């Protein structure tokens, strides 16, 4: 491709409000432009990388026997009613109405549409298992679009859905898919971790996420400092054992605590540790109020809480609701003397607090010498807090550390959770009607582009890996007005192209400096410069990754380039 | 592909409410399913045809030097403000709001986003001309989705946009694109016509549509019965000359005409011809009321009217507005004694009406012996009616006939109309800032699939052309429990696949009759049946298009198939 004929709008100066380096470099090197908040146009170079990613991913899917399909972006809104729990974050779904007031959504996922299709079209075990895939835009109403392609409203995904007659069959595809995802990420040269993840459903059987470690990631990984254990902090179980105290229980006492609201203020007021305090928070769980207790130094994990309570919906109670229920503000909630019908759910750590401190459900007062069971009833103790650094690893080896990562893929054995809701049944070998088993597999393609852009760069620009570079070779005549140089460059352009190299030919009338800066920004694996020694038939070859520079005769160029591109 | 592993849900019975045969057959042969009103899922076979179409179209675009890009589906609504006239049918644009109340639309076109990008990124004549293309879903809020893929809310398009420094350069690309479109449609084996079309803008330079003749088409073509002339009826000029009458003008007379409203009723009441009547219709043109007159046997063409008036917006006046303006109902409007400030625009044919009939702006009355100029003033005479069968062809050769067709593509020289609105300027060789010239080119890919489905079928199913068939060969062992048959079939499956044939291997445990019915429905070019003569190594080969049947030895199969697929 002649550079004069395509659009690569490199930038000398960067807008200062760009937060992450992948986004910065995609803008600077002319790969990407924002179209509107959280929505991007992929310029020609980015499109070429995406095409290569899509091709490779499609090949991997076909190899696994998955069938390509295209499901629509527009979906009827009522399709979500069956899968409410997948979308408790309803505000993330972009909604619209057509001219007939029909309520539509823009597909955040195609699990429901696919399952509906399966229900309608597949009746017999003979057609199972079957796996579909598609590569398509999905949509999400991000509350705060940022980090460029990492949190955008319109993004490109490969999704796959599999349906099975048995759990064993699902498990087999799950393992295959896990291998394929690993293979894809390895081919991209990405270091990833496959971590335990939220199954999101009470009976979801298994789920993993593929995470690339990164400080800008939105996923927190809890991992062991001694073993391979790694898990999404959203579901990591806490196996800490809390020693029960031998101290005697003191008499419960209500103390006036003016202006004392936060845990820090409580501790400083009573000169106590956070471990002596009980944090009380009111949730609305499937329409009923529940007081949830965790220790002062712990944080409630709403996903573990929801799973523990098998809740369909779970939201924080509003200030008004708390005022009406308890007659106090948020900072004064406590577990003692609650209205009947208000359940108390406590984290396991609460059980061993002796003579603790809690809110009094009365602004300006706290109870001290609070002891569970003696002073208030607990409906159940559950593991409902986030694991913390220093907690023992759930696998029994080492202690937990935390780090951030970017989720690039997820695989999930959904089991029969969704198929039951949709009545997606099949007739088995014995004539029995049963719900299909389902697997769900996602891979973020625009996200992979962003992760690669994050990793494959140095201070001068991108450093694309050979297989996924927009072009293979950047061919640059230093001075297009020098006939010898330009002729040799044109000649090499034709030869290289005929050998099936993808060549970007910088035929622009620009200063050499500009061309080299652009070339480094774009970051193709090999730069071939035709300069002063053109008359001798000598060209300069620079390897972008290593910075190595060679002078090769034009006659040996093809062989040497073939060798370079064949090697790893 | 083994048929047991993919999804081809053929139907024995059809829902009775399906109107057109392409849609019927796409459903029956298991290519398509409706997801919600006007929105479809492409099942695996349809996806394979689409992939082949996309690949061919991409190749044609690349050959022309167009650069692939991906522009987003989500667009800010305010982007339309500059191109109002492209979207006077605002209700066809699907709109939504994000959680920050930002108004968004789902792309009906990418002309505006692309032009905005050009304005921001291209400054110099050195970067022109440049042509981009993309293949992507577009959205339209169809008032009445029907005919399956032909009028759907979400559809697949190839769009291309070109930008130029001069009109000559635009013209050159326009001609190239016109050739490429012709070549694409020819490769698909479609008979099409390239007709003059609405440029939609006052200074749009030229536009053509590619139409495939079909009774279910929404486009009406006006063509000459003697020459090559063909044009979209929306813009076909009327060149009829209306002889002026020699008859004397009779005195104007107001006649009571109870219950007489339609043109037919008027004619029968007065025993006159429709050619003696004046139809009066009130439009609201850019906020002002205009009375538009055409002869009783003619129909107003709103696009010609809008263009003649250079109107930004043009709508019919409502009943209330007419009542308020004239004090009568729709059937009684006339051009005589109108309020001041209400303009009268008349079709050219009105000029030669002598002693005609018109409404009296008073319910229950008409005027007779109405003569233009004597009885009412006309602000201008314009060519504002639809051409009719029997009118002379505008090219001077023959008379006009009408037929219906499906628009599959359009090409348009937009000139500087849109680029001026977006200030998409460049600096020319002399340092002058000028608006770019723009071309816009669309090709409906899902529409092409529908058109092919309409044409390539017989009473038993599809008859796909070789190049765009979902697979090349349908390989069918009659009885999979017959070991000799199944072994030979499996062996041939591997051999054919290794020779790069796309093979659909019917490995299902179904009766032969079911398999053959399905095979005819799916309509691959060649069926290879392995039946009773398997033990002799003889297979039956049926050519779907001609119905020819051959018995070939397995040893000669590859050579003969190669020969068949190489031939035209």
Automatic annotation (TrEMBL), chains A, B:
Listed HAMAP family: Pro_tRNA_synth_type1
Annotated function: Catalyzes the attachment of proline to tRNA(Pro) in a two-step reaction: proline is first activated by ATP to form Pro-AMP and then transferred to the acceptor end of tRNA(Pro). As ProRS can inadvertently accommodate and process non-cognate amino acids such as alanine and cysteine, to avoid such errors it has two additional distinct editing activities against alanine. One activity is designated as 'pretransfer' editing and involves the tRNA(Pro)-independent hydrolysis of activated Ala-AMP.
PROSITE patterns: AA_TRNA_LIGASE_II (PS50862)
Subunit structure: Homodimer.
Domain comment in the entry: Consists of three domains: the N-terminal catalytic domain, the editing domain and the C-terminal anticodon-binding domain.
PANTHER family on file: MITOCHONDRIAL RIBOSOME PROTEIN L39/PROLYL-TRNA LIGASE FAMILY MEMBER, PROLINE--TRNA LIGASE
Taxonomy, superkingdom: Bacteria
Catalytic activity of the protein: tRNA(Pro) + L-proline + ATP = L-prolyl-tRNA(Pro) + AMP + diphosphate
Claim: Nucleotide-binding is one of the keywords in the record: yes
EC number: 6.1.1.15
Record-annotated Aminoacyl-transfer RNA synthetases class-II family profile domain positions: 33-465
Keyword Nucleotide-binding part of the UniProt annotation: yes
GO molecular function: aminoacyl-tRNA deacylase activity; ATP binding; catalytic activity, acting on a protein; proline-tRNA ligase activity; transferase activity
Keywords: Aminoacyl-tRNA synthetase, ATP-binding, Cytoplasm, Ligase, Nucleotide-binding, Protein biosynthesis
Location in or out of the cell: Cytoplasm
GO cellular component: cytosol
Gene Ontology biological process: prolyl-tRNA aminoacylation
Name used for this protein in its record: Proline--tRNA ligase
InterPro entries: aa-tRNA-synt_IIb (IPR002314), aa-tRNA-synth_II (IPR006195), aa-tRNA-synth_II/BPL/LPL (IPR045864), Anticodon-bd (IPR004154), Anticodon-bd_dom_sf (IPR036621), Pro-tRNA-ligase_IIa (IPR002316), Pro-tRNA-synth_IIa_bac-type (IPR004500), Pro-tRNA-Synthase_IIa_type1 (IPR023717)
Family affiliation: Belongs to the class-II aminoacyl-tRNA synthetase family. ProS type 1 subfamily.
């Amino acid at each position: 491709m002649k550079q004069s004929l395509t659009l690569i709008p490199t930038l000398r100066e960067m807008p200062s409000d760009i937060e992450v380096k992948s986004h910065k470099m995609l803008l600077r090197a002319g790969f990407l432009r924002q179209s509107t908040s959280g929505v991007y146009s992929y310029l020609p170079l980015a499109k070429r990388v995406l095409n290569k990613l899509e091709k490779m991913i499609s090949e991997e899917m076909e190899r696994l026997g998955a069938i390509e399909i295209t499901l629509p972006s527009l979906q009827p809104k009522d399709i979500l009613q069956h899968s409410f729990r997948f979308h408790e974050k309803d505000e993330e779904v972009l909604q619209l109405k057509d001219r007939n007031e029909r309520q539509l959504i823009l597909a955040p996922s195609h699990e429901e549409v696919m399952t509906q299709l399966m229900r309608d079209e597949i009746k017999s075990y003979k057609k199972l298992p079957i796996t579909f895939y598609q590569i398509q835009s999905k949509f999400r109403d991000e509350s705060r679009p940022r980090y460029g392609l990492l949190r955008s409203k319109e993004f490109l995904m490969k999704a796959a859905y599999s349906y099975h007659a048995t759990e064993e069959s699902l498990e087999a595809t799950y393992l295959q898919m896990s291998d394929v995802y690993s293979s894809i990420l390895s081919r991209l040269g990405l270091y990833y971790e496959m971590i335990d993840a939220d199954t999101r459903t009470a009976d979801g059987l298994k789920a993993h996420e593929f995470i690339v470690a990164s400080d800008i990631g939105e996923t927190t990984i809890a991992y062991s400092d001694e073993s391979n254990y790694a898990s999404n902090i959203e579901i990591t179980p806490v196996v800490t054992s809390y020693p029960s105290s031998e101290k005697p229980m003191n008499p419960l006492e209500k103390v006036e605590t003016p202006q004392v609201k936060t845990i820090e203020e409580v501790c400083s007021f009573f000169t106590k540790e956070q471990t002596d305090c009980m944090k009380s928070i009111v949730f609305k769980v499937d329409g009923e109020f529940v007081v949830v207790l965790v220790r002062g130094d712990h944080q409630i994990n709403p996903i573990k809480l929801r799973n523990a309570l098998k809740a369909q919906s779970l939201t924080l109670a509003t200030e008004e609701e708390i005022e009406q229920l308890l007659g106090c503000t948020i900072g004064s909630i406590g577990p003692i003397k609650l209205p009947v019908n208000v359940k108390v759910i406590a984290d396991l750590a609460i059980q061993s607090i002796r003579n603790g401190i809690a809110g009094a459900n009365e602004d300006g007062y706290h109870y001290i010498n609070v002891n569970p069971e003696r002073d208030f009833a607990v409906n159940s103790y559950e593991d409902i807090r986030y694991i913390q650094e220093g907690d023992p690893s759930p696998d029994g080896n080492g202690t937990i550390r935390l780090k951030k990562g970017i989720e690039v893929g997820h695989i999930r054995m959904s089991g029969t959770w969704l198929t039951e809701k949709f009545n997606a049944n099949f007739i088995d070998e014995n004539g029995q009607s049963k719900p299909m088993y389902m697997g769900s597999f996602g891979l973020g393609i625009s996200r992979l582009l962003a992760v690669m852009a994050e990793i494959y760069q140095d201070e001068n620009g991108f450093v694309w890996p050979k297989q996924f570079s927009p072009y293979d070779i950047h061919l640059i005549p230093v001075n297009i007005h020098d006939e010898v140089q330009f002729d040799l460059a044109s000649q090499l352009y034709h030869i290289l192209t005929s050998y099936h190299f993808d060549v970007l030919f910088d035929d622009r009338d620009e200063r050499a400096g500009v061309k080299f800066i652009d070339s480094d920004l774009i970051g193709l694996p090999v730069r071939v410069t035709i300069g002063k020694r053109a008359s001798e038939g000598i060209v300069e070859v620079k390897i972008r990754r290593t910075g190595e520079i060679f002078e090769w005769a034009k006659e040996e160029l093809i062989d040497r380039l073939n060798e370079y591109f064949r090697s790893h």
